[in-house]
Amino acid sequence: MSLLYDERLDGALPSVDKQQLLTAIRDEIPSLQILHRPAELRPYECDGLAAYRTTPLLVALPENTQQVQALMRLASRLQVPVVARGAGTGLSGGALPLEKGILLVLARLNKILEVNPEAGIARVQPGVRNAAISEAAAPHNMYYAPDPSSQIACSIGGNVAENAGGVHCLKYGLTVHNIMQLQIVTVDGELLTLGSHALDSAGFDLMALFTGSEGMLGIVTEITVKLLTRPQCIKVLLGSYSSVEAAATAVADIIAAGIVPAGLEMMDNMSIRAAEDFIQAGYPVDAAAILLCEIDGVVSDVEDDCQLVEGVMRAAGADDVRVAHDPQERQRFWAGRKNAFPAVGRISPDYYCMDGTIPRRQLSLVLTRIAELSEEYGLRVANVFHAGDGNMHPLILFDANEEGQLEQAEALGGKILELCVQVGGTITGEHGVGREKINQMCVQFSSDELTYFHAVKAAFDADGLLNPGKNIPTLNRCAEFGAMHIHRGQMPFPELERF
Amino acid sequence: MSLLYDERLDGALPSVDKQQLLTAIRDEIPSLQILHRPAELRPYECDGLAAYRTTPLLVALPENTQQVQALMRLASRLQVPVVARGAGTGLSGGALPLEKGILLVLARLNKILEVNPEAGIARVQPGVRNAAISEAAAPHNMYYAPDPSSQIACSIGGNVAENAGGVHCLKYGLTVHNIMQLQIVTVDGELLTLGSHALDSAGFDLMALFTGSEGMLGIVTEITVKLLTRPQCIKVLLGSYSSVEAAATAVADIIAAGIVPAGLEMMDNMSIRAAEDFIQAGYPVDAAAILLCEIDGVVSDVEDDCQLVEGVMRAAGADDVRVAHDPQERQRFWAGRKNAFPAVGRISPDYYCMDGTIPRRQLSLVLTRIAELSEEYGLRVANVFHAGDGNMHPLILFDANEEGQLEQAEALGGKILELCVQVGGTITGEHGVGREKINQMCVQFSSDELTYFHAVKAAFDADGLLNPGKNIPTLNRCAEFGAMHIHRGQMPFPELERF
């Protein structure tokens, strides 16, 4: 691998003549809409990780796959890097632009091409909103299962890039488990089909490889998703606990009882209070923790399982267990959980949202350790969990205007992610690596493992033009990061640009 | 990619000095057991696809991961190809040896390293039998879900190589959905960890890429599998139909009703009669088709779902629906299905087992077309299906001693696989590509797609030493096959060596 490749992967890019690039695009793809004036570019300078901002060289807004192919052919020829962007709701900076690169915005590829209830599939373009797929399938009593909290806004293409999860991924799986086929445009502008409409595909599973690859292997231009029949019946239980440990025990016991809830979420007292203040979800504000457990299926099954879950929750020490009496109450219960992040945003000038995954059995240990770290660093931490699958979202509360607090938040965040790796987990759950966690990847993976990541990257994009500097760190970066690590005597957090 | 690579991938290998290789292995890895005499090598000349036979240069039987690493380092240095083999039960010739290569038999890496019921995992070596994992987990009331019909004999390492399915993969997924982490030895003898013990991993999903890669990317030496809690209750329904179409409708209707059976299998009249003669399963021998539907879960759920399924089966036109009254009858129902292949073997001198996957909605169409093809070619076809997920196993009955019948069986088989691709399916379900379907891959995939398969292969094994000539055809092969295709005016089947 050339040094150029290694450097480019790390974001050290050669300069591009903007005017020359603009002229080439206008000559060769006259129908393609391009934004290039500073005021036009401003809205695209960051995604959901707003702490990082870069103005792109220019923004391309293709309206069809042919334009994407033509643009990639041109970018390859001129060796200009390309960052793909969906709705820009990502939380790890995966769509952070490059000042020497094209930002390829797929928002206008927003057609639902086919809804086939008989086959249980929908074929959609990448700019289609996650929730819009379920809306289009609703007349057939079907829906698309993965539901990130941002589902009203986030795009299915971004979901593929990040292998997004959501409240229901415990029972219904991540994005990769709910898609069947991808059409992608390669770095050279070729059109490829990955996967098939059948259960399994021959050859290497490139569809699974592509899913979660954060725009580094190609540009997705069409997705065939699975549609599920809407469950006959949905019930949500809310269990209140006076200790976090008891709630964690209940989580393990529910799973061990052989029940697969549609969702199993946990919130700690700080999150409960913040959500209740914001949304009036009907949460018990004195509880140390609550569990929200959703059961879906045919009516009689759901009723039986609800009784079972209630029994398990009480046996684990629940002070109270309530079942939502009607769809309105059920939606209120979920509204509190789904708005936990903005709710916490109301009680602190700034917060930093973490996203790690741990083995379920380590839940109680990790929560105890986070509480200790919180005290040690003098910063409050609110905990919101996809408890059933061990995906944690600790929110570190701080005030960027207070001297040193951002650094403390960074350091605490690093410690929490390090803790996730120590107990056998990973540094990402569903938000991806992006720009945010590029250094933590050096902790998670050995240089042997990274070498194979690079080899796979090179198989698809030998020149490193697709989203360089994200997701997979270079060995150079890890060598520097390792040195820094030793120097500072603790795992540092990526240098955030200041708010 | 060099021509050497392309040729080697296609099995045209440089000669190896056997004596020199033996001496090198004995010098460098004295503890490694090697078989090299013709009589010792004979048992290893084929796997479950016994129509293809090759005597390997020598057989290595490592007893630990260090020996596998040392052997791969030596093989890489001397540029000797290596074919990995588990229990040798594979049906597509994936473990067919090379006469100029080492057969690396992983059968002695057969330790169960850890069973952790709390975490819901087991850590095992690749030579562990599939069924042995569930046996080891049984004291904890847990089991490993994927259950190929060969589960008594087949090894978990082979299951990973082929991404094996089974009767229960409709509800519980394929091998890739039931493993969490792989330890592999690379072609250079490095040890790598793919995946994690958490729900999702950062970086590219190399574990999914490796699963089903048929020994072409590395040698798996340790597998962490998921264990599930054994369901409280299991029931099996048997529905009898006087038309195949009605049975196919019932399959679609059961899935559409929102029920996820643990298994949903279909057999046609010829399979029913053969199985009944062989096993006395209690099947209705006059039915055109039967459906076997297994429901598992907590007691009350299972009872409710059974009633629902019975209703759907009857509404679709079932002449009769029976529920197995006790575990013995349930096991008899399944025994007929699981022994369908040997049962068909009793009514025909030879049979050829196909393995294709089609979208579920195409079931009825494909069955009708197979019946027409059967008539056209003058050969009987018995149909056994994982109906719920569209994975078909048509068995083509023929007599190799009758002039021309093998060729007819080959041609008919090719037509059936072509049909699978035409209706939007694939040429493999769970048996893999191996040597058997290497030419059909040229029909399934475009040269662009194959180019990316090769690039991924090269990322892991640039010299093409791992299982060359299997799974992924070279572009040369496809060019020749395409020419042959046009020449003969029909899709030819791979030239089988004669029985």
TrEMBL record, chains A, B:
Does the record bear DNA repair in its keywords? no
Alphabetically ordered keywords of this record: FAD, Flavoprotein, Oxidoreductase
Cofactor(s) annotated in UniProt: FAD
State the InterPro entries in the record: FAD-bd_oxidored_4_C, FAD-bd_PCMH, FAD-bd_PCMH-like_sf, FAD-bd_PCMH_sub1, FAD-bd_PCMH_sub2, FAD-linked_Oxase-like_C, FAD-linked_OxidoTrans_Type4, GlcD
Q: What is its EC number?
A: 1.1.99.14
Q: Which GO molecular function terms does the record list?
A: glycolate dehydrogenase activity
Tell me which domain of life the UniProt entry assigns to the organism this sequence originates from.
Bacteria
Alphabetized Gene3D superfamilies for the sequence: 3.30.465.10, 3.30.70.2190, 3.30.70.2740, Uridine Diphospho-n-acetylenolpyruvylglucosamine Reductase, domain 2, Vanillyl-alcohol Oxidase, Chain A, domain 4
The chain positions of domain FAD-binding PCMH-type read 52-230
Identify the Pfam families for this entry: FAD-oxidase_C (PF02913), FAD_binding_4 (PF01565)
Could you tell me which PROSITE patterns the record lists for this protein? FAD_PCMH
Protein name according to UniProt: Glycolate oxidase subunit GlcD
Please tell me the species this chain comes from: Alcaligenes endophyticus
